[in-house]
Amino acid sequence: MTRRHLCRDCNTLVNVTGLTAARSPVAIAGRAALTLRPATRAESRKAVRAWHSHHKAHVGEIVAIGGCVGGVLVAVVVVGRPVAPALASAGVLEVTRLAVGPDAPHCAASRLLGAAWRTASGMGCRRLVSYTREDEAGTCYRAAGWRATATVKPSKWTHGNHSLRWLPGLYVPSTETIARVRWEIGPDAEPAMARTVPLDARAAAGT
Fold first, then answer.
1. Averaged over 38-53, what is the pLDDT?
2. What is the pLDDT of residue 104?
């Protein structure tokens, strides 16, 4: 059985499957403080499959960071190389996945985004980028010190026999067409753009 869960940090829906939908021992424990640790590729892929609202599990990664409560993984962030050719240069990395489970404490997403930048900058990264859907408020990015720099329109994907779409930040063929907002942090990050998040999304996020 699958149900939808509203992420408190990003104001986005995530999938909750199986026993995770019930009140787990982690939730009953009162949402103890979040601790961070490296996550294995298997752990991060499993978390993305279970908790992400519109991404499949990633293929490649440079580093994955897990957020834990009582030793149980409740959220994960994955950093990899930029897929967009225009961003594939030295010193640029990308948060390709951010998945938050139902037992994660408040601000888990922003904590992980902050940890992703600290880790990436320690590796020499000067510009870390990520994407959200245009209809998402991106509250956790703002809380972590990121800034929205551009709106990226979806473009056609012409591999194979079908004309499909490429979604920024998704990197898999899809028939869905929706713009995405690019978020950045770091000394080489682009300047912030004018705020264009829809009013209904901002109202839902309380911003």
1. 90
2. 94
